[in-house]
Amino acid sequence: MSLKEQIIENHNEFLESLRHRFLDDDRKAALQKFENIGFPTKKDEEYKYTNLKEITEKSYNFFPKENHNITKEQFDELHLGEENFDWIVFVNGKLHKELSKVSIENVEFLSFNYALNDDKHKEVFEKYFNTIASKDSAFTNLNLAYCKYGFFLKVPKNVVIEKPIHVFYISQNQEENTFYNTRNLLIVEEGAKVEVIESHHNFDDTYVFTNSVTEIFTYPNAKADWHKLQNDNNTSYLVDNTFAKQEKDSLTTVNTFSFGGKLVRNNLDFIHNGSNINSFMNGITIIGKDQLVDHHTAVHHNFPNCESYQNYKGIFDGNAHGVFNGKVFVDKIAQKTNAYQQNNNVLLSEGASIDTKPQLEIFADDVKCSHGCTVGQLNEDALFYLRARGISKKEAQALLLYAFANDAMQNIDIEPLKEKISKLLAEKLEVDIEF
């Protein structure tokens, strides 16, 4: 039985397992859309360079076992040296309060499953939930049909959350390949501020397929930062769909750091709904062996005097394959737009490859928009310069690669996260660097 057939066959049982049923009609409609669309293939332009057969030809368990035996030592290894952070821990889909640390006050925070069961949040869900997620994507429709796990966070007007919040999604003790549909909803009201870190971790040798959808709403003069730390094992597949809608004078950042996982697809969509908006997207990808990481970004400049900045760096070794497809749309009324998009890549082996396609669609005439991409190898003159000063070839290569990737981290203002990314860079490049 194909995965598509499994999805259709298991849906009624999934619905029966839920306590909340007010989304039933939406879920059934989404499943019908998914059935009509089907999983994308390489014949689809948006998936031309990403073959999903490895994911879709496997069988999965749709109902994860909840019990686990994660030790404190195992969990501590996932931390970033973040004693002063808050953290939210989901294990096998379920929120575990005993593993979490939540000290934030004056906010509405609930697990997604609980929020759906709470009548007082029904109005909020009707206003925000699934309003900016794509209605035409197989994966967003699949997520709507099956979503149950994840969190809902609403930061009220002028509330500044000083501590970053790290959200852990952990899968462990699963005897079969497991399928998760995580759903996150972040609402940052006027003048509020919050920073979220998201990471996924599979502790088993069985395969995990996570189909995640996140919707972010940033209101006037608010600031929302979302950092994705993707460093899972080689039996993990992740399709991540993130949608960010910004109102005037707001700032939203999504940073994506991709170091692990067998196949990772990141779909990132920014929607401008006011003037004087700033949007930042940064990415660092370092992969090897036969890993694949695919970044698809889109920024919709719909109002004047807005800025967007995209900076993605990729380092590929072994038979790794990278994809970058970045789009910037500038509406005819979006005068004074300033949009920057850059994708730079280094290939370290003959088997590594990158398909990159930055794109601009501009219908306004008073704009500053640039895009570009580079694909190459390390600069031989710079290597010679370092080696002439007694540095080994391997160390010289690693130092150059570290410097190449480093500028994509410059807007991280969470020092433990920046240090963690730096250490992961150093580990991947096998070089000793002082922090």
TrEMBL record:
Tell me which residues make up the SUF system FeS cluster assembly SufBD N-terminal domain: 8-167
Its GO biological process annotations read: iron-sulfur cluster assembly
Lineage: superkingdom: Bacteria
Residues in domain SUF system FeS cluster assembly SufBD core?
175-404
List the NCBIfam families hit by this protein, alphabetically: sufD (TIGR01981)
Family as reported in the entry's similarity comment? Belongs to the iron-sulfur cluster assembly SufBD family.
What is the designated name of this protein?
A: Fe-S cluster assembly protein SufD
Which species does the entry assign this protein to? Chryseobacterium contaminans
